[in-house]
Amino acid sequence: MQIRLYNTMTRKVEDFKPITPNHVGFYSCGPTVYWDQHLGNMRTFLNNDILKRMFLANGYTVNHVMNFTDVGHLTSDEDTGDDKMEKGAARENMTVWEIAEKYIKNCLADMDLLNLIRPTHMPRATDNIKEQIEWIQKLEKLGYTYEIPGDGIYYDTSKFAEYGNLGGQNLAELRAGARIENNQKRNITDFALWKFSPKDAQRQMEWDSPWGVGFPGWHLECSTMSSKYLGEHFDIHTGGQEHIKVHHTNEIAQSEPIVGKPWVRYWVHWAWLMLREGKMSKSSGSFWTVRGLVEKGYDPMAYRYLILLGHYRQPIEFSFEALDAAATGYKNLVRKVADLMNDKTGGIDEDIYHQWHDKILAPVSDNLKTAESLVVVQELLKDKNVNNSTKLALIEFVDELLGLQFMDRATKLHELESIAAPEEIQEMAQKRMEAKKSRDFATADNLRNQIDAAGWTVMDTPDGFKLVKKQ
Ligand code: AMP
Ligand code: ZN
Description:
The protein is α/β, with parallel strands linked by helices. The protein folds into three domains: 4-275, Rossmann fold (3-Layer(aba) Sandwich); 299-417, Four Helix Bundle (Hemerythrin (Met), subunit A); 423-469, no CATH class. Helix content is 46%, strand content 15%. It is built from 16 helices and 15 strands. It has helices spanning 39-57, 84-92, 96-113, 129-141, 171-177, 220-230, 244-259, 290-295, 300-308, 320-342, 350-365, 370-382, 388-402, 406-418, 423-437, 441-453, and strands at residues 4-7, 12-15, 23-28, 61-66, 145-148, 152-155, 191-196, 214-216, 234-240, 264-270, 273-275, 278-279, 316-317, 456-461, 464-469. It has a four-stranded parallel sheet, sandwiched between helices. It has a four-stranded antiparallel sheet with strand order 5-6-7-8, with helices on one face. A three-stranded mixed sheet has the order 12-11-13, with helices on one face. A hairpin with a 2-residue loop joins β11 and β12 (278-279). α2 (84-92) crosses α3 (96-113), α9 crosses α10 (320-342) and α11 packs parallel to α13 (388-402). The longest helix has 23 residues, at 320-342. The protein is elongated, with a radius of gyration of 27 Å. The two termini are 40 Å apart. Zinc ion (ZN) is lined by residues 29, 222, 239, 247.
């Protein structure tokens, strides 16, 4: 099936053409591991997962690289400000190395809860310092760098004619109008490749280099680690939308002089998860993690479903009302799948299977329209011309494509419903039904509460009642 993706570089939805047939290599900017990843970060990682699943469903092999930024770069894009890793370490009274370990572990746990397929490679910036130094040396030889004494080695963006193309920036205006915070930089857009450690303080993370002890600039790690695991040219680079104008623009500037043009074929950027007051961020008031949602009793799939009901190029406003609505919608679908399991009829009808398979895959292959695919799934479940076995086989495919774990949750529900309630619970349910018939609602409510406290849910059905073990 023809795959189409919106390419930020050309500002168009384009037909995807891989460098190697039936194979895709893509790089995703990963987390800075000084704190937990909030639901906004996870939206970005979830989008990477959908991109990967779409390629897999289309028969591609996938090499997906996501880095862990464990070197503390400075908190602003201007290469000034505090070091996030050192700040995190001070906050928790740990070393920066321990902080990195802790938050990598937490991030992976949240990714697992959301059923994200692990990236093929997850390199850490600190394991690739030598490669970053070598990269700077190459740029130095080509004449792209200059030193600001006592500060660091900088990239001279005026030497790269295409600087700013990705973000559509008019550089003349940007350069004329902007205030240069670091007034020793030659151009407002220049960025650090190597920062010197301060003379008066020892940093926990610092390395020797031909220019002096220090640490690499943030943008560098993505150029070096992508080329190490994907080759010098690869298909797709993804990241949050805020990376367009600085981080990815700088990655291109420091890569193309070395590897040639174009470095990356398609640039795909994910829109943010918002709160009513603005972007969900580490500093915003509401900081929710996936583990936090589970502690509150939510199925992580409810969050996954909520995100897939939107489109990756549109912001989504997060609220618990929206999450509750998604949780209800998700449970309804699980209910329907469990009902199919209760009444498996017919064998798999191959022709019908293929028709629906393509109907489900088509919108996702067309620029990742997951919501449209979910509409097709609803139609499938309603269609009386498709037998239950065929429907179940298709739901298995939906799980591979969208990762929503319908089969798993429905199987659990089905198992719970097949457990017979103990006799005393059955008796209570019987009495409750009789109490209801004689309009003694106080007794009926009382019995329902007792049944509930014993770990069972009683439901009214046309022929009496049904007891289901609570999860
Ligand atoms: P950070 O750890 O801040 O470097 O962020 C890791 C990834 O999460 C980056 O690719 C960001 O673009 C992305 N990200 C941060 N905040 C949000 C948000 N509110 N919605 C979606 N993605 C986000
Ligand atoms: Zn990056």
